[in-house]
Amino acid sequence: MRKLIFASNNKHKLEEVRRIFKLYDILSLQDIGFTQEIVEDGYSFQDNAMIKAEAVAQYTKGTKYEQYGIIADDSGLCVKAINYEPGIMSARYSGGSDEDNRQKLLSKLITITDRTAYFQCYAALILPNGESFCADGKTYGYISKTKIGDESFGYDCIFWSDKLRKTFGQATPEEKDSVSHRAIAMKKVKDYLDEIDYLGIAEEEEEL
Length: 208
Fold this sequence. Notes:
The protein is α+β, with helices and mostly antiparallel strands. The chain has helices spanning about 10-20, 45-60, 100-110, 175-180, 180-205; strands at about 5, 25, 70-80, 85, 115-125, 130-145, 160, 165. It starts with a strand and ends with a helix.
């Protein structure tokens, strides 16, 4: 299994996933001509990750991509003091841009001293034979009072990582990959795929 479709067109997510799956051919939704709107109406990150993966798996049936595995993720920021908002609504929190989302969150925390938070990700995999696998990842920190670092991707510039001792907006790609929720979840998927490949090779050797 060396060919995968990642159910996203988000360039930042694609870059992260391609760094993790270095030996895999990773295609985006745009690469396969997928233009359908996927309604993410699940009740959890895992629900929404599977909704995305299943929608793309259905689309690839009968096409040249039907032998590609499908990976999808759903992730978000959870802030303890405000009932773990924005949660699964992280990308749609304000109904506007990333900056609008950040400002809505910061405004809710103006009078709150407990700013602890975590990023959570669920990654879903569907193989051509219909087999599926899910993995989760979490990374902990707190919400800074101001934006620090690169503001181009989501909440990164206001999430201070406990492990990195800086915001994700200040981190290099390599630093972020070492601790991020998405990297943790995707590495579990990669390990699963690597194990399947290993077992497949072992079985073939036994038959010879």
